[in-house]
Structures are given as structure tokens and as C-alpha cells.
């Protein structure tokens, strides 16, 4: 199977760096002052600037697959030791 990194682009008029593609480098729970925590994409732009965008605002961004970084062989669930999950890949 091929593993594709994900790229993110804010499309809302008030998005940080609207229409600039950035690499999704993770997901984090972010708790803004006075608001409840929310899951956010952690994105990094080409110049190294990092931003957090709430995942629930799906009308405010686009996602696309970047070029695959590697191919991995999936581990069938029946062969996976308990508590170990399937194949995983860390992309930095």
C-alpha cells in the first residue's frame, strides 16, 4: 500500500495564509482561552511556520494527498499482537 502525506489549504476569507498549501504534520487537542478543547490539524508551511486549524470547520479548508513518501505492507489484523494496532508510519 502507498502512504500519502496530507496537505491542507485554508479557503475561508479569514483563514491564516488563505490558499497556501501546508503539510499536515499531526492532530492535537487545542483549548483556546475560555473555549472548550477541540481537535485541530497541526500544519506546517514551507517556511516552517506552524498553525492549528479546527477540524470541525470542514467548509473552511481543503485536503489533498501529496506524493507518496513510501510503500508499506499492512499487517493483517489476525497477525497483530494484542494492543499493537496495524501498520503505522510517522511522517515528519
Describe this structure in words.
By secondary structure, the chain is an all-beta fold. It has a single domain, classed as Thrombin, subunit H. 0% of the residues lie in helices and 39% in strands. It contains no helices and seven strands. The strands form two sheets. Strands 5-4-3-2-6 form a five-stranded antiparallel beta sheet, with no helix packed on it. The chain is globular and about 45 Å long. The chain starts with a strand and ends in a 21-residue tail after the last strand. The C terminus is likely disordered.
List keywords for this structure.
single chain; 92 residues; 7 strands; globular; mainly beta; Thrombin, subunit H; two-stranded antiparallel ribbon; 39% strand; 5-stranded antiparallel β-sheet; disordered C terminus
